[in-house]
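Q: Hi! New to this. If I give you a protein sequence and the SMILES for magnesium ion, can you show me the bound structure?
A: Yes, paste them in.
Q: Okay, here:
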Amino acid sequence: MNQVIAVTDLVRKYSLGEVLVIALNGVSISIERGEFVSIMGASGSGKSTLLNLIGGLDRFDSGKIMVDGLDITSLDENQLAKYRREKIGFIFQSYNLIPTLTALQNVELPLVFSGTPKKDRLLRAEDILRTVGLEKRMGHRPTEMSGGEQQRVAIARALINKPSIILGDEPTGNLDSKTGEEIMELLTWLNKKDGLTIIMVTHDPEKARYADRVIQIKDGRIVG
Ligand SMILES: Nc1ncnc2c1ncn2[C@@H]1O[C@H](COP(=O)(O)OP(=O)(O)O)[C@@H](O)[C@H]1O
Ligand SMILES: [Mg+2]
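A: Thanks. Here is the predicted structure of the protein with magnesium ion bound:
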């Protein structure tokens, strides 16, 4: 009904010299607007490949990905960059923050690229850092924060351009279980509060429980 993502018969192969790896072997999934979905599977099952393709970070061999009625295969590099910048927020296992920048500077960085004036950038970055509970850490650099705090900065950065879709690749993978649960609660809250569509990849059933729906992937195929 209110479908936001439709993936059809997606195939992604990697060739390593003589060896051909079929990372995705005909994957089809459909995701509704405002859904919180987790994609679960063992290491090497194709989770990151699938997420990266939905996020426009990589090209595929065949199949189709429609996001908000847009066929992302049809986009050129510039359009794809715009798609990633405006529609998608990424969160990674290793946070991927810039070590020399403060929390505030990391979060405002995407707005520097989109040409937002300094004053607006600061107001918006501060506001989002407050939303994720980091009002007291704005001037801290990544090395001066805990893993959970760094992931909150990364979530704030992912939200700064007001994306409608958040893609998380094992976002709690480097955190202890209590901190991981706090991050899952934050994501659940954002999903409910703002109607954000969230797709999170994990191999941890405890974390997958937070989602409305769990999609199982095995050897590059959806199995449940
Ligand atoms: N850049 C790459 N080059 C070659 N093989 C790759 C590459 N990325 C992933 N693969 C292979 O594709 C399969 C799926 O990988 P991936 O999507 O990273 O799995 P997961 O995230 O579920 O652990 C694995 O067999 C992996 O070795
Ligand atoms: Mg992975």
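A: The pocket of adenosine-5'-diphosphate (ligand 1) is lined by residues 14, 16, 21, 23, 41, 43-49 (CB under 6 Å). Let me know if you'd like me to explain how to read the tokens.
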